[in-house]
Here is the input.
Amino acid sequence: MIPIGSKQKPLLEYVIRLLKFNKVTDMAFLINYKGEQIQNYFDDGERFGVKISYVNDDPALKGTGGSILNAYRQGVIDAEDKLLVYYGDILTNMNLQEMLSFHTRRKTYATVALASGFTVRVGVAEVDKEGKIKGFVEKPTLEKPVSIGVLALDGKVLKEMDRLVGKGRELDLMGEVVPHLIRKGKPVYGYLSKSFWYDVGSTEAYEKLSPKLVDDMMSFLF
Here is the structure.
């Protein structure tokens, strides 16, 4: 709900507008902390041209995957659905329709949006076996692709998650569910995107997100 850009609209409004722009209009918000604030602002989504359902987290189902499984058990999402999962602290102008088309063509269980060129926000040390620092790189850029908090899931994954939670695991989506699918030999693909994206998941990142950058990259949504 933090305001961004010169319009000072909530980050989640940009997310909704991006989804609507990409013809995704049936949404479920998985909420917990200050969920009432989100509901009061967005209501049923009608003024944005979308349909929004709300699912409050179940304390017994922990982790991001647990929140999704909770929505499944409450009948808000279905094993026959094609799901687009979008983490609420991510800002991007990615073409989500292209990613969903890729997901459908590949017939995958999960498709993870990836981007290269991520800048690490801390310094990285090169250390020898005795602990002596041989060099130091301040905030290096990674060339390996990183997950950007957007992924597509085949509804069949929900049944896999239901089995997993029975083993007492905390269902973190990227830490538990996706690795489980890979181990089981299920098709999991990466969708490499060169689109703008920004993780607003910390106070430091939020303070460095300039209104001009937001306007330049996201103004098409308005």
Notes: The first strand starts at residue 3 and ends at 4.
